[in-house]
Amino acid sequence: MSVHTARLAALRERLRADGLDGFVVPLTDEHMSEYVGSYAQRLAWLTGFEGSAGTAVVLAERAAIFTDGRYTLQVREQVSGEDWDYVPVPQVPVAAWLGDHAPAGARIGYDPWLHTAAWVDEVRAALSAREAALVPVAANPVDAIWADRPAPSPARLTVQPDALAGASSPEKRATIGDWLGKQGADALVLSALDSIAWLLNIRGTDVAHTPVALAFAIVHADGATDLFVAPDKVDATVRQHLGNAVRVRDRADFAAALGDFAGQRVAVDPAGSVAAIADALVAGGAKLLPARDPVLLAKAIKNPVEIAGHRAASARDGAALCRFLRWAEETCPAGTETELSAAARLLAFRQEGGRLLDTSFATISATGAHGASPHYHVTEASDAPIRPGDLYLIDSGGQYADGTTDVTRVIPIGAPTPEMRDRFTRVLKGHIAIATAVFPDGTPGAQIDGFARRPLWEAGLDYGHGTGHGVGAYLSVHEGPQRIAAPNYPGGQSLEPLRAGMMLSNEPGYYKPGEYGIRIENLVLVEPRTIPGGDPDRAMLGFETLTFAPIEREMIDPALLTDDELSWINGYHAAVTKIIGPELDEDDRAWLMRKCSAVTR
């Protein structure tokens, strides 16, 4: 019996002891985070799945794991098909599956600190047809059987200086206080870790790759704030930075504090906070004001200081990537390197700059067939040699005090096939279509997503992920509320109007199962555009490309590019040499000049 089969059996035994017929295990924490600390990795511990999004449902006789199109291949490699059914989302939501498979009259457990109130309502409605009940648990049964579960990180908070943040915490809190006044609310509960970090100009290392600290916050109408965090995480420097208007309270006291708002109107984000928060407020007599976290949009629209910081971080990061790409081109054809050794070499190049604080996510170092899994995560067990004939995909980023980066490049190990060049060029055409798009202010990302897909659609091809996600300023590499994706993207983020100052990724791709994957990713900034002869009353927007590193010329089929597309790639490479060249030594600069020479027909 495998370790994960034994864990599934142990959970079922625990559920029987607790009087439950099933239980739902999401990949999140009490802050609804995308990336979570090791203490909250319940899904990975139970199933073996190491992706960044997923949910498991365990019934007495059946179990299912729910993942989206990014993880179709990965989930089958990591999770036993003998123990688990593979269920695609959003095609089959958890609620619908439970509505079809939960036994009549069953008691299905859930942890109210890991699900939103909307999710609870949806699942309850689906179960009602089977006269089954959704039951909140006081203690998570996975934790009860996870004997060596890690403790939450004890790392201390750090201060994000105003000189890098571009605005002080008192200024930000005053803005939120004004928002509360306009809403007629007395307080706002914040549970999103990056919202708290941005609002208070603090950072932490409690979650890998994301510089946040485990905390909750309650902001009052006068801007005064209660910060609930483990006391040992706050030193004298942080206390001085926070000032008297921020009261530091023990994180363990947060749930009880929610009962102190009887008769008061409290704003809570229903999409970004867990059901337990709303339940505690209502139980204490508070009046709930469902409202989107007002920090989200303020955080998404970068100020001039944050934009300047990102440009500096991007140039530094691009130089490290260029040195890596030269190393890979010269070294990998020998067949002596692997996915892990290549990722380690890229990390070393970034570290040599002396400013890297962390990677912004686990590097996707994928050769050959592994590249066909968009979010492939290399492990010692899966580590593959990089061999001639492969396409090697490297998707990576860095966390710097002045910015967060995310970039993907693909290089051929040896000569690419005509099909590889065709697919790569179509992906490049889609990338250029986004980079050069011009659109009215307020256009949602859903209306732009198809620009990137058209060159692939014309050949009967597509890719199974969004085209772009928001990016934080020394915060989360995946940041809302904006996104470039199809209109039905979960959470409605692709319907968020794009606004000047937002940063997003531009990353179309193509994936051939069992053979290779292609993705070209740069970060872009939404900025105003002036269109000669256009309606003077219609504000227009476009994208400024922020990421600079060569796009592999040997993969491009110039015959597929229009004159304007040829002009774009050559102009982009000219900018790469201008911005990155000064960051390199003479030999690396000479290599870069060759890689960025003009593409011609």
What is the CATH fold-level name of the largest domain?
Creatine Amidinohydrolase
- Which architecture of the largest domain would the CATH scheme give at its second level? Alpha-Beta Complex
- Count the domains: 3
Low-confidence stretches: none
What is the percentage of strand-forming residues? 15-25%
Distance between the termini: 59 Å
Largest sheet strand order = 4-3-2-1-5-6
Rough outline? globular
Whole-angstrom Rg: 25 Å
What structural category do the secondary elements indicate?
A: alpha+beta
How many DSSP helices? 19
**Total beta-strand segments:** 28
CATH class of the largest domain: Alpha Beta
Helix content: 25-40%
Biggest sheet layout: 6 strands, mixed
Fourth-tier CATH superfamily name of the largest domain: Creatinase/methionine aminopeptidase superfamily
Average residue pLDDT:
96
Family: Belongs to the peptidase M24B family.
InterPro entries: Creatin/AminoP/Spt16_N (IPR029149), Creatinase/aminopeptidase-like (IPR036005), Creatinase_N (IPR000587), Pept_M24 (IPR000994), Pept_M24B (IPR033740), Peptidase_M24_C (IPR032416), X-Pro_aminopeptidase_P (IPR050422)
Protein name: Aminopeptidase
Pfam families: Creatinase_N, Creatinase_N_2, Peptidase_M24, Peptidase_M24_C
Architecture overview:
With 601 residues, the chain is an alpha+beta fold. The protein folds into three domains: 3-145, Creatine Amidinohydrolase, Chain A, domain 1 (3-Layer(aba) Sandwich); 158-295, 3-Layer(aba) Sandwich (Creatine Amidinohydrolase, Chain A, domain 1); 301-595, Alpha-Beta Complex (Creatine Amidinohydrolase). It is built from 19 helices and 28 strands. It has a six-stranded mixed sheet. A six-stranded mixed sheet has the order 12-11-10-8-13-14. A four-stranded antiparallel sheet has the order 21-28-27-24. A hairpin with a 3-residue loop joins strand 2 and strand 3. Helix 4 runs parallel beside helix 5 (117-128) and helix 14 (304-331) packs across helix 15. The longest helix has 28 residues, at 304-331. The model has no long low-confidence stretch (mean pLDDT 96). Residues 310-527 form the Peptidase M24 domain. This is Aminopeptidase.
